[in-house]
Amino acid sequence: MRWTSQLVQTRSFWLTALLFITSATPSVAATEPPHAADRPNVMRFLRAYFLHQQDTPDPSVRVAIAFADLNGDRRPDAVVYVSGGGYCGSGGCTTVVLAARGTSYRVVMYAPITFKPVRLLQATTRGWRDIGLISKGELTGDRFEYDEIEESFRGARYRERRSASPIRPGSLPGRTLIAVGDPGTQLYP
Known about the structure:
Largest sheet: 10 strands, antiparallel
Low-confidence stretches: 3-32
């Protein structure tokens, strides 16, 4: 009888623990993508930032936004690829990195001649993750060869880390934040 009583108590304990764990864990269907709540704040910041550079909103401007904690503060920073309007040319389009600051952001990188993909590299500089950008390289025969540029944080902003030889795109360890096929969304609807 005593053995049965201990078995029932043990089973009750584990069932209670399991119930507690499953109720405390949000279901996958109920959770939203990471940092989705920050997207409207980033869009608001970008509209104000780019309107300061232009007189009128350009409906052709599109932004592809990815979030990552770049400096280890557990706050989402934004990496933005801007295309359309005056933000693209023969050398590519513009990539902007926004660091979270209070309820807004500050620009820590503005790179006007880049191509997708934009990558988050494993390397860090001064506590900030490095960013991999694609840049037009050289004309080889009848086509362009592209190089990956490693942007490193240099105190207040990201700066290009010069390499003695071209870096083949995707060869630096990291992951893609903004893919080649990401069309982005209209900045000024």
